[in-house]
């Protein structure tokens, strides 16, 4: 078997473009919008982007295409973690370029931004592209995490572009990659290289969104895949009636994935990192919050449940971050050697007890021993605790077990608590894109080609009105600088695209907040099932609950 | 939201019956086949089942229905682990009973076989059944693992049946539950209770199959769900190009699930427990086998891959089983106290070193410390090692890392090895049944009702010719005793249904064996994607590769 039946069938799928892009290239004209300003720190951003700042927002509409039809060569880069639909961005870009001028060429730099620096690429052909249409993954050219951000890298990039006669680069990436796309665009403009840079908003985390970008691609497919699995586990929990499932989902800095999955599946518990931070919740408070649900459900004879835990949540617990900071300090430099020399965990524990503040020790003491040891024994090359290795799903189930033990002694809880653990991340990043992501991504790529044809530089390909059918989507472009502000990174002021966290006064969280007390006690599980590509439209074409609530 | 769009849409699905059951109840007649013999130990089995042994195989065909049309009351039980399609067995049974006689009644015993003993049931109605059609899970009445096997339990069961006027019991379960169904059938026959027992073959493990039962229900959906996830991870591996994914899948005693997933997704490695046992492979040999693939792929610049590990594989490694036996012996009774009293792991290790044989110690030494500790510190109430807790996916990745370290020192290997771990089990047991499982299960239930109407007892509902379209399926019944042999269980001779292991000379394994060397080195991944319920038939209606190969 070379390819699966579904893959074969998906090759035939024709992604839907926004209505205004459906009339053929010759019937796409530009409608100029207003000049733009960055979301904050306008003067500083303008000073950093003198050539690309303040440009107009634009939309496309039906009308005579007035762009130059010269032959163009475009390079495309996949940057960072995989997201379903990347292949469709490339095929949309390819189709629009070829439709504009059959002599246009699209090349793909291999394995991420480093491909540009290393002058390592392939030239796309019909046959090559056809094997990747409507499929998941970034394997069409590979992805990578090299950051393009230094003047030296930019100079090499300019040279590579000149050498091959490249007119434009399309960077498919998240907030960091698109920030770097803007800086590269400014560099090209400042040096009159004539090379344009266009970004496309990618990330399953959903944290690249703002008043212009309604959602990043991949979020829809990834959350639908996780929700399928969570729903299946909920149904298993409700059938076997004997396990509490603690399910960690991807999302280091923002909890959009966890929240969307909760809206889709209505679990008993879903932690939201942004809320934990805002309310300065302690580990003990969080454990009590979960234990309350376990206890109330047990009182109803339901010794089972499902809790969703966002990957990064412990980093949002203030007392935990403080503990980590103290541990990093305690083991800095030579002190680590003294610690490492201690032969037994008992002696190490005494060292820790003497070294940490009382507040930090109070937090340390309630952790399960495996996590205590992990914090001290598995450190990165700089000697720092590797917070990302902490299995938060196991941490919280252990803390909840402790709480329940206390409650059992007090007599308030008489149930049984058998936790099981899951982590869903890699399962969703390369799924076949949902119809929504297939359409959205193809449109992003097609639209990027139009932005290139019309000579724009430093723009993000923008498709909006996404909660409506594709026919009503709006295609256009937005200067990336509009989304920027200044943030302190590694002790320096840097212009960056503001990362979108879950807004606690936003409609998706509010909806969750209004319902979660009921979900915590009742069994209100919803089972979304596997992503469907065929069949009734309400099953196949709806995007996320998050977007629906935001746009309602 | 009360139910998902897919669930709503699936309510409308009309499961396909075998052609011969499509003419209405009044047009279903019995064709008697040959008398049957048990697969082995015929005399002993016959002696144990004097009233139900040796009955004829039967098939249904189009013809005048000659069965009695008296009003009947039937009870149904879900036994053991969840499998997709259980709800359809019940709805098929319900629909056939109501079509036979609208006064017929179907009741469901709650939470497994214990519901029968505890006289705890619900009465099914149209409205109730309609909420569960074509959905996953066993939440319609719950499941449980209580075994019905003692004369005392049977006596209570007979009483409950008498009290409610129950004419027949349908038991939906795996090999053990159907074994017990046969024993109960014999009991009812011996006591002239007039109650019939019919079994239905359920298990995602796929190990309830034989020359009569082509596959158990749920295997198709569960393996398709795992294959979706494995394919997604393969695509991620091939995009990021930096991780080796070790994926454990369910299957304690047989590796059908692992093998089917491998046939669907073509990973680099798939261990088959039955082969490990047959070849008496050591942990070191298995680790070398995997490390060979890692090394060869690294030589091609591919420092990534996917390995499937069946859940129970370590129990099939002879030297490991011997080690476990020695540990259980070493800690039996009072000796555990001496061991537990030792304060440090170092002292415990010395105790172990003195207590184990050289052979056992050689195996113990190569284990990662976390697993060494787990073997000694986490024991069941009888003091035995809990083999099921061993995370085999982590065990093998650790052993492979050791092998690669050696090879690096020798200079034969220069790659990078970053393992990640997954376990898929609960994600697939309650998925919405595939069209195949929806059709198969509905047919099993419908067919069970016909077996009841015609007065059969101790039969398994049998639907065959499953690799063909449903129209061509063959419906009938097989005496459960035909599948039995005598096995030693807990020191006693017991009549049991022979568990089907992966046959190393069977076509599915042979196909795997013929291809795996290529798959181990090349990237031959196949991405099945999510189960589709609508769309092209070749995407939606095909059953497993295992069945296709077995029937080709």
From TrEMBL, chains A, B:
- Name the keywords, alphabetized: Cytoplasm, Glycolysis, Kinase, Magnesium, Metal-binding, Transferase
Q: Which GO cellular component terms are attached?
A: cytosol
Q: State its Enzyme Commission number(s).
A: 2.7.1.90
The catalysed reaction is: beta-D-fructose 6-phosphate + diphosphate = beta-D-fructose 1,6-bisphosphate + phosphate + H(+)
The residues that the entry says bind Mg(2+) are 175
Q: SUPFAM superfamilies from the entry?
A: Phosphofructokinase
The annotated site for Important for catalytic activity falls at: 202
Main location per the UniProt record:
cytoplasm
- The yes or no answer to whether the keyword Transcription regulation is present is no
Which function does this protein serve? Catalyzes the phosphorylation of D-fructose 6-phosphate, the first committing step of glycolysis. Uses inorganic phosphate (PPi) as phosphoryl donor instead of ATP like common ATP-dependent phosphofructokinases (ATP-PFKs), which renders the reaction reversible, and can thus function both in glycolysis and gluconeogenesis. Consistently, PPi-PFK can replace the enzymes of both the forward (ATP-PFK) and reverse (fructose-bisphosphatase (FBPase)) reactions.
What does the annotation say about its assembly with partners? Answer: Homodimer.
Q: What is this protein called?
A: Pyrophosphate--fructose 6-phosphate 1-phosphotransferase
Q: Which gene encodes it?
A: pfp
């Amino acid at each position: 078997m070379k390819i699966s039946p579904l893959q074969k069938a998906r090759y035939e799928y024709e992604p839907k473009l926004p209505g205004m892009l459906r009339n053929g290239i010759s019937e796409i004209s530009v409608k100029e919008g207003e000049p733009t300003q960055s979301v904050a720190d306008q003067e500083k951003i303008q000073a950093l982007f003198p050539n690309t700042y303040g440009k107009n927002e634009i939309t496309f509409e039906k009308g005579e295409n007035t762009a130059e039809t010269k032959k163009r060569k475009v390079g495309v880069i996949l940057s960072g973690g995989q997201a379903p639909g990347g292949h469709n961005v490339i095929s949309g870009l390819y189709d629009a370029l070829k439709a504009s001028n059959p002599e246009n060429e699209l090349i793909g730099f291999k394995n991420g931004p480093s491909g540009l620096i290393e002058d390592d690429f392939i030239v796309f052909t019909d046959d090559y592209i056809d094997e990747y249409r409507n499929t998941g993954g970034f394997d069409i050219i590979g992805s990578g995490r090299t950051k393009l951000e230094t003047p030296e890298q930019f100079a090499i990039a300019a040279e590579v572009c000149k050498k091959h006669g490249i007119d434009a680069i399309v960077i498919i990436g998240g907030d960091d990659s698109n920030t770097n796309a803007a800086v590269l665009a400014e560099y090209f403009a400042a040096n009159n290289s004539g090379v344009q840079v266009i970004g496309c908003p990618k990330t399953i985390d959903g944290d690249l969104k703002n008043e212009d970008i309604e959602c990043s691609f991949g979020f829809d497919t990834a959350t639908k895949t996780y929700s399928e699995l969570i729903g299946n586990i909920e149904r298993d929990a409700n059938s076997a009636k004997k396990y509490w499932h603690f399910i960690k989902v991807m999302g280091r800095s923002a909890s959009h994935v966890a929240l969307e999955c909760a809206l889709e599946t209505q679990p008993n518990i879903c932690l939201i990192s942004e809320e934990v931070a805002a309310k300065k919740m302690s580990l003990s408070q969080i454990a009590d919050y979960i234990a309350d649900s376990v206890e109330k459900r047990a009182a109803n004879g339901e010794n089972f449940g499902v809790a969703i835990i966002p990957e990064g949540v412990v980093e949002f617990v203030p007392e935990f971050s403080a503990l980590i900071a103290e541990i990093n300090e305690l083991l800095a430099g030579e002190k680590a050697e003294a610690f490492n020399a201690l032969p037994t965990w008992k002696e190490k524990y005494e060292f820790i007890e003497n070294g940490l503040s009382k507040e930090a020790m109070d937090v340390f003491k309630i952790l399960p021993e495996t996590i205590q040891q992990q914090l001290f024994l598995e450190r990165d090359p700089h000697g720092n605790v590797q917070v990302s290795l902490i299995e938060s799903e196991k941490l919280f189930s252990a803390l909840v077990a402790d709480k329940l033990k206390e409650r059992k002694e007090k007599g308030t809880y008489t149930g049984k608590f058998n936790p099981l653990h899951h982590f869903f991340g890699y399962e969703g990043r390369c799924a076949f894109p949902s119809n929504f992501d297939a359409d959205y991504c193809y449109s992003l790529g097609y639209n990027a080609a139009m932005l290139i044809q019309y000579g724009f530089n430093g723009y993000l390909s923008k498709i909006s009105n996404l909660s409506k059918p594709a026919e009503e989507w709006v295609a256009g472009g937005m200067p990336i600088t509009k989304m920027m502000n200044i943030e302190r990174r590694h002790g320096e002021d840097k212009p960056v695209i503001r990362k979108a966290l879950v807004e606690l006064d936003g409609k998706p969280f509010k909806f969750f907040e209004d319902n979660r007390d009921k979900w915590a006690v009742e069994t209100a599980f919803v089972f979304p099932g596997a992503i469907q590509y065929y069949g009734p439209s309400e099953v196949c074409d709806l995007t996320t609950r998050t977007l629906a609530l935001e746009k309602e």
